[in-house]
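Notes to self after the Tuesday call (sharing in case useful).
The group wants a holo model before anyone commits to mutagenesis around the pocket. I volunteered. Ligand is phosphoenolpyruvate. Logging inputs and output together so the record is complete.
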Amino acid sequence: MRRKIVAGNWKMNTLLPEGELLVKQIEFLTKELETDVEIIIAPPFTHIATLGKYIKDYEMNVSLAAQNCADQEHGAYTGEVSAKMLHNLGCKYVILGHSERREYYGENSESLYKKINLVLNEGMSPIFCIGERLEERESSRHFEVVSQQIKDVLYRLRGVELAKVIVAYEPVWAIGTGKTATADQADEMHAYIRRVIGDKFGDYSENIPILYGGSCKPSNAKEIFGKEDVDGGLIGGASLVAQDFIGIIKSF
Ligand code: PEP
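Result:
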């Protein structure tokens, strides 16, 4: 039985007081919630220490993720935040390779491979994002693109390291656009991703959680999460509204 996971990626949204309010609302809405879904939130770096303390003080069943980390361990890298710093603040996860970072900040397989290793060395788990652009899907290259993204980074890990990774399939054309992949499109790609991972790592692939991301909301989550190879979601916009985020969790 694979883990079920719903992770909220807040991106560069909320000031700290708004982030605190959002966590309080999540706490209120999850207090009585009986669920086997692992809940993760990825707030901006500036919120992690404060929200981490709140989560701990109120014994919330929520784990913390960061949205990125440096590709160096420590030292003269102005403006960067290391994996160790994030672990020290209580992060269990780091989102890596989000399409916005690949597109706007030149994130590539080499830097991602370094980051994955730094995250794993800290005992945290990467949430590794992959997915094709619209023109790649329209020219039927989506499987090839996704397979290459896996091979360029994940194939360089050892099986025991791969076992710590969460994969997020996020078709770029569905992120923040309101355009969702159909449940069948998501399931088809998730099964393919599991096969590509299995080609290299055998049975390890069976236990890797593969999350869907892209305009996921309470109204479409149930159908998507109902698919065999979909183990949860990475949620952007809807994770900023506590009711919607919890609605998505309840869709399992
Ligand atoms: C994301 O950016 O990871 C994402 C899935 O965004 P949205 O849900 O807003 O499409």
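Two things stood out.
The chain has twelve helices and eight strands.
The radius of gyration is 17 Å.
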